[in-house]
Design goal:
This is Transcription antitermination protein NusB. GO terms for molecular function: RNA binding. The chain has 135 residues and is mainly alpha-helical. It has a single domain, classed as N-utilizing Substance Protein B Homolog, Chain A, CATH 1.10.940.10. The protein contains six helices and no strands. The longest helix has 27 residues. 33% of the residues are buried.
Amino acid sequence: MRLAVFKALFQHEFRKDEDLEQILEEILDNSYDEKAKKDARRYIRNIKEHLQTIDDLISRYLERWTIDRLSAVDRNILRLGTYELLYEKDIPIEVTINEAIEIAKRYGTENSGKFVNGILDRIAKENAPKEKFEL
């Protein structure tokens, strides 16, 4: 499910005139069960709604970089991970970060995994809801 959300966010970078939710629907094929599709749709809707807050938060943790200078892969993995850390209350921080690292290793550069880990770890420590530390 996270992979479908990441792919939709990534494709939207190159198809800005198209609706993000429609791009997701193109990705959600029969390999996804109904729960995964429902979760992916919720993620996309909420990421769209909170995108400015998410981008502003990520930007606070970028040293000598702007969010626009990040690769499209790293930027959208960070968006997905930051969204999940802040707004998905029942997913442990470690799961979010580990899943983001795996996507980064698969689709990013050789340094993407470490980079994503560092940014999301700092975002989690300073911004994740307190109850997530008890999961």
